[in-house]
């Protein structure tokens, strides 16, 4: 069989159709490999060997019957642990949900199941997706497969590490401020955050509902396009999802169309904060993209300097409201009540929420409750909403001049485990280049500057930002870029 490390969705599809291997054999091989490799990487929180092998058998039966199979049939995937897969744990890496089993499938999971995808297991993450290093998981810290002393990024660090370490061919993550793109960049894989509304969030454990999106992490841009084409679409279970028709160019971009796209480099993203290594790598990518014949010019997004503070008002406000549902009574944490059981309802809340939530989650609930409280609401929350509008308008103006915007993903490559845990502000800066897109609702993709496998260098990704619902533009440039990388 082909080496696991060489597999892409495309190659798996061809291999299955040409009967080079069966889905069952492939799935088994992945579990054998996970057993050794994940002992050091720690990407998975739980595995579902029985379910995955049974699903693989169904794919093999369909092939044996001569049925036509879709591109994702038999493709081994990792699913971030804040996405519900019926019958499997969904802890969101929190003690609060330690004993919770998902009662239904998220819409994205339903779609992937119909397409024949195989779910190997649930991937580690920062608790409730709050963090940039996966160190906020209540259960364990995932390691960067390129250097086990470093973080994989976060919050979808388990998903990114699983793909980068060849323990899955693709994964799903969620992105509220950068949680798909930043770990993709730090692990050297591709990560797509779709436009707000492009993918249903039904069955995703919400963090900040006006910012959250679900998207794929994959080895190639082409694979990201394939997964996105399956999970996108309007869903009656998510009122924010929209009906958009994506043309042929999503999966089959043409170079003559791609060459017509103009790319903008926002000067505010290239001024300060980036380390020299990251800057150098990104500049190489820009030169390569120019060599495709695409016009690249400088643009300005003047309100960028307000984005981080705006995000850290709006996000915690929504977090504090979303976390209110975890009272310790629902979702089964009551089992964990201590011997000195509190006698009052308030006592139960204090005990359950105090013990069930980790430090970062509690920090954000307090911040969010504060900015929403009467007396502070206008000064913080209402003001941040106005700033959010300005940030969105910056992008609207820029997109009159260019079609796509290119930026760094994160100011640095993967940092050491423990390096930023005592300084939340340093950690928050990891997402300075990505969270603007969540505030503006725009699609963004992180693409590795080169192949880092087998080198001693740390991966670096660059980000392409598209107009709303123009995933095809950023995926298209990305696909041509990776052919000449
Ligand atoms: N790292 C950012 C945060 O901690 C983004 C998280 C995310 O996108 N889920 O809020």
From TrEMBL:
Top-rank lineage group of the source organism: Bacteria
UniProt domain Amidase: residue ranges: 25-475
Alphabetical list of Gene3D superfamilies matching this protein: Amidase signature (AS) domain (3.90.1300.10)
Entry-linked SUPFAM superfamilies: Amidase signature (AS) enzymes
Active-site annotation: 80 (charge relay system), 155 (charge relay system), 179 (acyl-ester intermediate)
Function: Allows the formation of correctly charged Gln-tRNA(Gln) through the transamidation of misacylated Glu-tRNA(Gln) in organisms which lack glutaminyl-tRNA synthetase. The reaction takes place in the presence of glutamine and ATP through an activated gamma-phospho-Glu-tRNA(Gln).
UniProt record similarity statement: Belongs to the amidase family. GatA subfamily.
GO terms of molecular function: ATP binding; glutaminyl-tRNA synthase (glutamine-hydrolyzing) activity; transferase activity
Entry-linked HAMAP family: GatA
Subunit structure and binding partners: Heterotrimer of A, B and C subunits.
CC per GO annotation: glutamyl-tRNA(Gln) amidotransferase complex
Gene Ontology BP term (one): translation
Reaction(s) catalysed (UniProt annotation): L-glutamyl-tRNA(Gln) + L-glutamine + ATP + H2O = L-glutaminyl-tRNA(Gln) + L-glutamate + ADP + phosphate + H(+)
InterPro entries registered for this protein in UniProt: Amidase, Amidase_CS, Amidase_dom, AS_sf, GatA
Keywords associated with the record: ATP-binding, Ligase, Nucleotide-binding, Protein biosynthesis, Transferase
Family matches, as Pfam families: Amidase
Enzyme Commission numbers on file: 6.3.5.7
The protein, known as: Glutamyl-tRNA(Gln) amidotransferase subunit A
Top-level EC class as recorded in UniProt: ligase
């Amino acid at each position: 069989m082909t080496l696991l490390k060489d597999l892409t969705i495309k190659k798996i599809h061809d291999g299955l159709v040409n009967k080079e291997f069966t889905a069952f054999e492939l799935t088994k091989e992945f579990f054998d490999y996970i057993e050794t490799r994940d002992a050091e990487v720690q990407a998975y929180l739980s595995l579902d060997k029985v379910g995955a092998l049974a699903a693989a058998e169904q794919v093999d039966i369909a092939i044996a019957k001569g049925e036509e199979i879709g591109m994702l049939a038999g493709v081994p995937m990792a699913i971030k642990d804040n996405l519900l897969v019926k019958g499997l744990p969904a802890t969101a890496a929190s003690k609060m949900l330690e004993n919770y089993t998902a009662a239904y499938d998220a819409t994205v999971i339903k779609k992937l199941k119909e397409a024949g995808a195989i779910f190997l297991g649930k991937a580690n993450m920062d608790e409730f997706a709050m963090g940039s290093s996966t160190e906020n998981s209540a259960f364990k810290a995932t390691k960067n497969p390129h250097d086990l002393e470093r973080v994989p990024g976060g919050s979808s660090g388990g998903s990114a590490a699983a793909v980068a370490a060849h323990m899955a061919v693709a994964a799903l993550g969620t992105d509220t401020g950068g949680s798909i793109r930043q770990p993709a960049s730090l692990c050297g894989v591709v990560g797509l955050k779709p436009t707000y509304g492009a993918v249903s969030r039904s069955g995703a454990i919400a963090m900040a509902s006006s910012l959250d999106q679900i998207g794929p992490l994959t080895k190639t841009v082409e694979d990201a396009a394939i997964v996105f084409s399956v999970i996108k679409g309007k869903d009656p279970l998510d009122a924010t999802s929209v009906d958009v028709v994506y043309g042929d160019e999503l999966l089959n971009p043409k170079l003559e169309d791609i060459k017509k796209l103009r790319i903008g480099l926002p000067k505010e993203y290239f001024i300060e904060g980036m380390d020299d290594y990251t800057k150098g790598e990104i500049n190489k990518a820009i030169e390569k993209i120019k060599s495709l014949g695409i016009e690249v010019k400088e643009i300005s997004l003047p309100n960028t300097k307000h984005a981080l503070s705006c995000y850290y008002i709006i996000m915690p406000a929504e977090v504090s409201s979303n976390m209110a549902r975890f009272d310790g009574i629902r979702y089964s944490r009551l089992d964990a009540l201590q011997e000195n059981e509190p006698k009052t309802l308030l006592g139960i809340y204090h005990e359950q929420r105090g013990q069930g939530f980790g430090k970062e989650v509690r920090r954000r609930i307090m911040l969010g409750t504060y900015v929403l409280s009467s007396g502070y609401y206008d000064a913080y929350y209402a003001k941040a909403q106005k700033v959010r509008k300005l940030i969105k308008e910056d992008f609207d103006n820029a997109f009159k001049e260019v079609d796509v915007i290119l930026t760094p993903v994160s100011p640095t490559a993967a940092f050491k485990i423990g390096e930023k845990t005592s300084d939340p502000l340093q950690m928050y800066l990891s997402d300075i280049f990505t969270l603007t897109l969540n505030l503006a609702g725009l699609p963004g993709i992180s693409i590795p500057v080169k192949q880092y496998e087998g080198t001693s260098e740390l991966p670096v990704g660059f980000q392409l930002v598209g107009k709303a619902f123009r995933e095809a533009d950023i995926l298209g440039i990305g696909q041509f870029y990776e052919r000449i990388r």
